[in-house]
Amino acid sequence: MRALVTGASGLVGNHLVLRLLRDGWEVVCLVRRALTPRSDSVVCLRADLDDLALGCALARVRGPIDCVFHLASAMPSADRRLSSYLAANGVATAVLLEAAEAWKVRSFVYASSLLVIGKPKKTPIDRTHPCDPCHPYALGKLCGEQSCEFMRATGRVPTTSLRFTSVFGVGMREGSVLPEFASRAIRSVDLLYHGTGRRVQHFVHVDDAVRAFRLAADHPGAGIVTIGGARSVSMKELADLVVQCTSGSSSDVQASGRDDPQEDYRWMPDLAEARAAIHYSPQSEFRSAIIDYIAVRRRSSVPECWWAEP
User: Fold this and answer.
1) pTM attached to this predicted model
2) DSSP assignment of 199-236, as one string?
3) Spatial contact of 206 and 12, defined as CB atoms under 8 Å apart
4) What is the DSSP letter of 248?
5) pLDDT tens readout for residues 269-283
6) Architecture of domain 2-168+203-228+268-283+304-308
7) What residues contact residue 229 under an 8 Å CB cut-off, 6+ apart?
8) 109-120 pLDDT, tens per residue?
9) What angle do CA 151, 111, 139 make, to 5 degrees?
10) Partners of 308 in the beta sheet?
């Protein structure tokens, strides 16, 4: 089997490529920076997500492609315009879908986000939840998702769009709540939650995210599928758990005194459709995964990568 993986140097992309290599696949990695693969089974192509650069990169693909795993996207940023999100997350997906149609792929798996629904209006959240994106990033993701659905419904490409909750694991970006809590707990600095700490978040471990991609490839054309982890957790509960999982930490958990604009958000996905559509259910136990994540951060260990660092 031979796969094209976009966004292959990101958290999930890197883990997915490593999994595919262990399973005996050949992989074409599409990334924004020049990287040197460690394996002869990997071909690395450099491209950004604007349609011209992406089209040129795809024209350099040689040989058959059985599956496309599309993980690349423009991430939320304060200085990005709506048009750039629509181009990078919407138009780029359409360009890839047209290439996948020409390659006659057996499966196209798109990394969407549960953020496409906007503010949760009901729980548990399933694919019938109305979509009302609150950020240009989510709107761009929804455009890509709808392009996938169009190609699937018209019989042109067998697509599956995975609506992920928050993915965590070794190598995740700094700046989000879990790395911040972990960093403070390791340094025995107090952990601060906003509002009352009642906002409910939902995390999925990177290993479960990779499993979802592999299962989706084996069940082509499943449509829209919500992917989450084993449990939801409030911000206060998360802070308490991180301190408990950080041996030797003397951190306290306190209210910051600042309002939480998402105080009443409840991210609680329904995974029944994922079990039915692609046989997915989370396998990572949340507390154990948090302990492992903190231990690796404390050692400052570098995660395994499919590329060689310069």
Assistant:
1) 0.95
2) -EEEEEEHHHHHHHHHHHHHSTT-EEEEE--S-EEEHH
3) yes
4) T
5) 999 999 999 999 999
6) 3-Layer(aba) Sandwich (3.40)
7) 165, 202, 203, 204, 205, 208, 282, 284, 286
8) 999 999 999 999
9) 80
10) 36
